[in-house]
Amino acid sequence: MHETADASGVCVSRGFLSQPGGCAQCSISSGWPSLWQARASAAPGAHADRRRGISRSPVMRTLRLAVAILAFVPRPAPAADPKPGDEGTPEYQKASELIRDLGHARFAVREAAGRRLLEMGGAAVPALRAGTGSKDAEVRARCMALIPQARVVEWTRRGDAYRADTDGKHKHDLPLLADWERLTGPPDAGSRALFADVLRVEGDFLEAVAADRRRTCARCAARCQAVLERVQGPKGQFPAEPTELVALLFVDAMDPVWLGLPSPPMPAELLRNPALADALGAPVTGPAIGRLLAKWVVAHPEIDPRPRVEFADLARRKPFREAAPALIELANDANTRYPVLRVLAIEALGAVGGREAAAALEELVTDEDNLFGRARAIRRLGDQALGASLILHGKKPRDFGLRAVDTLMSRPLGAEYIPVTIYEFATAEARDEALLRWQNEVAGKDGDKK
């Protein structure tokens, strides 16, 4: 038999909280108010909440809220494994030992240590950076000289691995690679080789852009200004490093530089550099550059016509087939305020050739828009298309009665001029005769020059 509850309201035999007037298990009377009585006086529904496992205690509510909040807090990512060369790794230890030899008394030992550090590539860079704080002046100087060289070795290795992966079976941790393949199309031998070359020269620049995409535009503008100041000569630009130009135009296509008007047209001025025209002619990498430029020109806002003018001017000086779609759009832009843009695009289409260009020029031949207003109605846009179409098909415009007039047209928003060739007819009758002959001999033919 159970014993009675004590004065605390707890059954002395089993330790249960007692009900009002007795034990919770044996109903033995107790003369003291119990904890049960206190709970019984709680708000209505409290017992039902307890049966469902719910507590209305402020402490419990706080705990439940904390648990709910913690459920949505992202767990900290596990610590990344150290990269080869990081402090504490075997590569770092090896590089540190070689760096000590950079201060050796024998010149041959110092040179050998430098060569072995370069062979390590990027894995030697952290230790080399630490070595720039050495007390030995020789060690400091050699470390500072070796850092950029080691970086080039590292970028060359990684770029060559991407170049060699012709089947795309491997993943490559390269900065901005996804953007590169988006802008240059599915990887082929040319685009892989070009990106590997860009990495070798501009790997650090691409890595810096990838690390802070918000500063892409500002970083690109500053670099373009530095390049233009370096290559600008009294009569034009000196040839720049082609991969440097490609890297800047690639980054600009991601986030076009727009400094407002009338700011310098950076980096559109890079298209005037002779090295870029030469690079477009490279048999392996040239087509990839052409695809990149075709994406670059359409990425720029229409409010600034200068990138489009420079693109069309480049395409007529160094024709590349990848330019055709963008040139067709520019040639058909009847709303532009700059006739020079359409004239350049039409001339470039005649130089580029191909079926697309031929078909676009045929549609423009009948365009009666005047290039210089009513006073010079004799010079129609359609006449320029006719001349370009004839050139595209290997014909001579003068054999069809067209007169070629060399003139200058102003670049948009600037004081410079572009030399262009304008075609015109002496009379309206001469135009009608030329159009009839063109219709019989040229219209509808393919776009390959004869």
**Amount of beta strand:** 5-15%
Helix content: 40-55%
Please tell me how large the radius of gyration is.
38 Å
End-to-end Cα distance, whole Å, is 120 Å
Task: Order the strands across the largest sheet as they lie in space.
Answer: 1-2
**Looking at the structure, what is the overall shape?**
elongated
- Please give the oligomerization state of what you see: single chain
Treating each run of at least 4 consecutive H or I residues as one helix, how many helices? Answer: 19
How do the helices and strands follow one another from N- to C-terminus?
EEHHHHHHHHHHEEHHHHHHHHEEH
Largest sheet: 2 strands, antiparallel
Q: Unreliable runs, pLDDT <50, ≥5 residues?
A: 1-43, 46-54
**What's the mean pLDDT score?**
84
